[in-house]
Structures are given as structure tokens and as C-alpha cells.
Amino acid sequence: MQRVLVVEDSKVVQQVLRHLSAQYLDVEVDFAWSLSECQQYVEKHNYSLALVDLTLPDAPNGEVAKFTLSNAIPTVVLTSKIDEYKRQQMLELGVIDYVIKDNRDSYHYAIKLVAQLLRNEGCKALVADDSKLSRSLMKQMLEKQLFDVTDAQDGQQALEIIKNNPNIKLLMTDYAMPLMDGFELVKAVRNFRGRDDLAIIGLSGAGKHGLSARFIKYGANDFLTKPFMNEEFHCRVMQTMEQLSLIADIKESAYRDYLTGMYNRRYFYQYAEQLLKKQQHNTLALLDIDFFKSINDTLGHEAGDQALKQVATLIKTTFSKFTVARVGGEEFAIILDDIDTARGREYLEGFRKKLAKYEFIIDEKPHSITISIGVADFQNTDLTQAMRVADAALYEAKNKGRNCVV
Q1: What are the GGDEF domain coordinates in residue numbering (predicted)?
Q2: Is the bond into 227 cis (omega within 30 degrees of 0)?
Q3: Which residue range is the domain that position 189 belongs to?
């Protein structure tokens, strides 16, 4: 489980960082005021990352960064001023990056940097370069940013690695390589991996005019000229990965129901169509809350929303291994992957009984809710037909008196 340690002695700055952490970091965050308190926290917990002030009352010369790094905690430094000597000192220490504390936006940048680094942890990256020294240097720099890095010595090898590893999210590729150059590699990769799925940063030596534009036209997200400064490399990679994360977040929000947090009808239909292309046996179920209109009419729409959210939570926790979605007002859908209709009915019957006994709290008062369920076989058919069968079964369940599985 990821956890972050922030060490800052300024009350005002720490307050700002606490506020921004609550906004951007979905992990446990501990705040320390001094080196001694930092040491106490490190004794108790394992940390994925540390954000530390370079100058503290009991550690005026960067001792806190040395301490966190000595405990194998990747570290980002906050500093009020920077000169070339201090910059070199921090880079030699092995910090990931430094942030200069000169305005509120710098704290915003620091926390967003921490958020992206946490997303990078375990994320797969590939470095393609025919220079062993260059590959080794970039591999070290990316590992410092918490990536899981693989390398390739030419374009053909890199292409095979990407084909066999769909989880790779970042490709750093040099232009001049034997067998297949950077341009050809980017064009080949873009045939099966889009810009919003795999980030590509092109690389080339100084003096090669027009390469940056050509790289980007062929499908790269960004370009770096060698030799590059540590900070430039770091910023380009972080900004590129942040854009990838933002696109993923937008896609995810487009597929989510705003009220329940479940997948919505759009996602459900796309996912179901993909399943139809596979040969495994699946079961489709439509679930509808009984007498939901009476909840809205007698208790109000806010109470109805409470009921929907609680039913959705129960569905999500019970069927956490399967795809569930809200496909209508009080209607939900479940695809039981690789489960035949007989077993699917058993699962759903057990859930129906569980829900009927569950005590829902609506407007701070206990309420009972039941559901009707229609089940259909989901193999060797199209989605429209499967939905029609499940909907007919649901309609029959309603006609039979509700609170049953058909």
C-alpha cells in the first residue's frame, strides 16, 4: 500500500500541503515538522515517497534528504533557494527532483509531481537506443522516477518487446539505430498503440534539424535533444505521463455513472460486445429495484438516490470479480464471465436473498428493498438479442410478484 511522508517546518506551508494532498493524493500522508519526527515516522511505516524541506531547524544542511534516501525512500526536495552548488549536491545525493518554494503554484506543482510519481510506481517503460551507455543512463533516470524499465538495443528488438508487453506505457527511442530507426519504430508502434495508450518520446543528438517535428508527425508525444539536463529529461517525462494520466481519467469518467460510481450504459455495451468475440460461456443479468417509484414519491428523490447508491454498493461488493453497470434509472446489469446460466442463477438467487434481508438506511431510518432479476445465456448470440431475452425474463419476474429470479 502506498504511503507518503511530508517533512516541512513552516506551519503555513504545511497547511497548504495538507490541503493540496487531500485534493490530489488518494493515499495515506504523514506530516512531520523535523528530522527527529521524520525518523520516528520511518521507524513505524514503509513509505513509497518522501517530500522534504531541505533546511530544517534540526537539519540545516539537507540531513533529512540524506536520511530518507539512506532508507531507500525516493525523495523530492523542497528548497527556498537554489544555486549550482546546491543543485549538483542534490543530484549527487540521488533525489528525484527539487521544487523551489517561491509561490503557491510551486506547492501545487510539488503535490502533482508526487501524485504522478505514485502513478509511475510499477509502470513499465522501454528505452530503445543502440548506445549501451545512453541506455544505462536513461534507465537509471527512469528508475529514479519509479518506473519498471526494460531496454532494447535497436528498433526491431524494441518493437517485439512492445508487441509482447501491452502494459508498457512509455517508450524512449533514439533516432539513429541499426535495423530499424526511431521513425520506423514509432510508425510501426502507432499501428497498434495510440497516443493516449502509449507515450513516446523521441531522442536525437544536437544539430539534427527537423527531427523533432518529424518524430511528432510520425506519432511521438514529445522530443528531447541529446545531451539533455537531468531536469529537462525529468520534466518532459513527467509532463508526458501526466497527459496520459489525464486522458485516462477523462475516459474513465466518461464510462462512470455520476451517482453510483458504477460503469455506465456506454461502457457496458462496449465491454459486452468485446466479450461476444470470445468463445467462453457467459451469463447476462438485468436487476431492477422493486417499487422504486414509490420510494421517490413517498420519501423524495434524495431518498431515492440514497437507495440507488446503497444497492449499487451491495452489487459492486458482491460481484467485485465481474462487470457491473447501471444501465437505466433503477436498473443494473451484470455479466458473469465464463459462468453458465445454471450457476449464474445460483449466484443471483443468493444475492437476491441477501439483499432482501439487508437493512438499508434511508433518511436515517431502516428500510427493506427487494429486486427482480432477469437472466439470459450470453453465448452465440448478439448483444441486442441477449438483452431482449434478459429484459423479457425481468418483465416475467415483475409479473410473478417481484423479488425473484427468472
Answers
A1: 280-406
A2: yes
A3: 122-254
Model pLDDT for residues 67-86, shown as the tens digit of each residue = 999 999 999 999 888 778 77
Q: What's this model's pTM, rounded to 2 decimal places?
A: 0.76
Nearest to 49 by CA among 120, 100, 103, 105: 120
Among residues 275, 305, 276, the alpha carbon closest in space to that of 292 is found at 305
> Same domain for 68 and 159?
no
For residues 216 and 237, is the Cβ–Cβ distance under 8 A?
no
Supply the DSSP symbol for 400: T
| Distance (Å) of CA 253 to CA 24, 306, 378 | 16, 21, 27
All three cell numbers of 280, joined, read 467462453
Q: How many domains does the chain have?
A: 3
Q: Which of 372, 395, 386 is nearest to 335 (CA)?
A: 386
Q: Is residue 405 a part of any domain in this protein?
A: no
Q: pLDDT digit string (tens) for 200-215?
A: 999 988 666 678 888 9
Q: Which residues pair with 151 in a beta bridge?
A: 127
- Closest Cα to residue 372, out of 393, 357, 389, 387? 393
Check whether residue 131 and residue 60 sit in a common domain: no
Rounded Cα–Cα distance for residues 211 and 175 (Å): 8
Write down which residue in 119, 151, 180 finishes a domain.
Answer: 119
Same structural domain for residues 276 and 392? yes
